[in-house]
Amino acid sequence: MSKILILTGDAAETLEVFYPYHRLQEAGFEVHIGAPEARTLQFVVHDFVDGFDTYTEKLGHRWPADVAFADVDPADYVAIVVPGGRAPEYIRNNEDAKRIVRHFFETDQPVAATCHGPLLLAAAGVLQGRTSSAYPELAVDVEVAGGVFENGGGVVDGHLVTARAWPDNGTWMKAFLEVLEAAGVRADARLAGVAAG
Which of 74, 108, 145, 174 is most buried, most CB within 10 Å of its CB? Predict the structure, then answer.
């Protein structure tokens, strides 16, 4: 069974968690939510209001995390996804979250990150020499971490696929599914059939 881990926490952007969660399930993968603790998380919704210089935040959906970062064996998973929102601002300080991310870069396995998600990649020290998208105001964070910022919706650098935010969800996941396929990562056809039915 091919399993994919989403690394997130409270105040993650609802659309950036649920879109990959359900899209990857639909494709036949078993998807787990990893967080600092295995408990119910509170996600948020970010949107834009005329006259504001930045996004606004409202409460979003609640969803249970399946596993605490400390209990994750990265070898159990074929890929990871790092959504945005505010969760990456604090999970980037979690040593186990960084350990998980480093494993996937060291083993050259597929990684998807969007919006503020690359903050975790930067903290893990894996963006050096890599091209990455992110929420545009985080271009400086990508560059300070030694990466090259690209303002795009489905930016691919090897097995890394990044995007700017939830409006890019379609192009982001399309590119990620193509990277998974090119890497020989196969989903469970029986799960895909159930999801499609």
Answer: 145
